[in-house]
Amino acid sequence: MMTTSGPRASGGRRNGNAMRQPLVLLLAGSAALAAVTGCTEEPSLYLGGPPGAAVKQRLSNSSLVVVVGDSVKLGARAEDEVGNTVGTAPTVTSCDGAVVGVGSAVADPVYTTGAWIRGLGLGVSCLEVSADGLVDTVQVMTGPPGVGVTGPDTVLSGTTGAFSAVPVNLAGDTLAGTTRYEWSPSSTALASVDRFSGTASGKAPGTVGIRIRAPGGAMGVKNVVIVPGVFGGSFPVASGAPGTLVSVNQDPRFKWDGDTQFSLGNLVGFVDRVGPGGAELFVAVPATGATTAQTALFTSIDYLQAALSATAAFSPTLALDDVYGPANLVPPGPIVEAVRSPGRHIYMVNAGTCASGAGANCDDFFTISAGATARTVTATLTWNNNTNTTGDLDILWCDAACAVFVGNFDGAGSAKPEVSTVTIPANTTWRLWINNFSQTAANFTNARLTLSN
């Protein structure tokens, strides 16, 4: 309601406003009257002035999803230009009576037409809603009450398998027809699945669920084993001591984006780098503590993220001393530049019971020096324990005689990987001390140290 105040509240001016108020409401149309009358949508309500010709239809839904054997409600009414409900009640007809049907009428407080829409068979169809020469279309998709998945029990890594939907009714009988399903894997690390076709691509070894979702919400799953392919490349005749870098050749070519992984038996190994052209992979020989044949597994070797395996790829050995031992078990330890790989890594093995102080096989020492200017270096340490436990390796720094600690203790924590950054003063030598804080006699650990400078 309009209000006045002050000098404008004279008698003549106030009467003029009162005369114009209905005109303001009429011009404002449906929005203004809705604010006055609230949210009701009674079909008999006129929004100011006499009703006009029907120019549009208002529908409760522009599309519907219906489960076969179930029903949903659709409402419709014809309106004039300002939203008055006018004309005859719209009629609803099915575009395909095998897919969707129009059931009995149902009263509706908002719409002049209310009808139950029933799913009769699988498919994609529509409904035509018409009144006074106006025709609108409602898209309808039907889905099954239940759905299963058929397809192979195994998929070879690097290849694909085709999976299909098995839609069923409430009695468990297979339904004819097709509809638009949505597919997905339970693990994107093990497999990828085309969202619409159900074609699955094997990646890493393991068991993955090939899942399907039907219109209306029914879901199904099939568990599938991803099997690594047979490695067709070549291995070195002799593998060397743990920590030795060896070259593995394979075609198709290896990729290098940090995802390529290597393991031997149950031990996760380390990949140092890919050689020129991508046909050669350099890996560090892991300690296994066994003389039996071991299975080598390579994962994410190419753009398909394929996995390949081979048996007895490396010479098995009981030796747990790494390629630097025993020189690295006590200070001063080898110079880092002399033992760092082309990938800027150092590979080591911690084994045996940890004794207090230096000298046990769970301690590794390396020498690192600064030149004429100070040297800032970041050391990153990660490891894989033979018992599949986390373990706890620490990065420590000591002076040239390893008599006192220097630098900082960023790496003397429980994180994995451990990371420590220090600045070595000019013309100064420090010792980098790798300590296995929780080693026992039954454990051994393959570790990788990466230096940024």
- What is the C-level CATH assignment of the largest domain? Mainly Beta
In helices, the fraction of residues equals: under 10%
When the domains are counted, the total is 5
CATH architecture of the largest domain: Sandwich
Please give the largest β-sheet: 5 strands, mixed
Mean pLDDT over all positions: 83
Principal-axes geometry comes out as: elongated
Approximate strand percentage? 35-45%
Structural class: mainly beta
What does this structure look like?
With 453 residues, the protein is mainly β. It folds into 5 domains: 6-37, no CATH class; 56-143, Immunoglobulin-like; 146-227, Immunoglobulin-like (Sandwich), CATH 2.60.40; 230-311, Immunoglobulin-like; 336-451, Jelly Rolls, CATH 2.60.120. Helix content is 7%, strand content 41%. The protein contains 2 helices and 32 strands. A 5-stranded mixed beta sheet has the order 18-25-24-20-21, with no helix packed on it. The radius of gyration is 37 Å and the shape is elongated. The N and C termini lie far apart (77 Å). Mean pLDDT is 83; it is low at 1-44.
Structural descriptors:
5 domains; Immunoglobulin-like; elongated; 453 residues; 4-stranded antiparallel sheet; 2 helices; mainly beta; single chain; 5-stranded mixed sheet; 32 strands
Q: What is the secondary structure topology, with strand pairs?
A:
Layout: H1 11-37, E1 56-59, E2 63-67, E3 71-79, E4 91-94, E5 100-105, E6 113-119, E7 123-131, E8 134-143, E9 146-150, E10 154-156, E11 160-162, E12 164-168, E13 182-185, E14 191-193, E15 199-202, E16 206-213, E17 219-227, E18 229-230, E19 245-249, E20 261-264, E21 267-268, E22 270-274, E23 280-284, E24 295-299, E25 308-311, H2 336-339, E26 345-351, E27 363-369, E28 375-385, E29 393-398, E30 418-424, E31 429-436, E32 444-451
Parallel strand pairs: 2-8, 10-17, 18-25
Antiparallel strand pairs: 1-3, 3-6, 4-7, 5-6, 7-8, 9-12, 11-15, 13-16, 14-15, 16-17, 19-23, 20-21, 20-24, 22-23, 24-25, 26-32, 27-31, 28-30, 28-32, 29-31
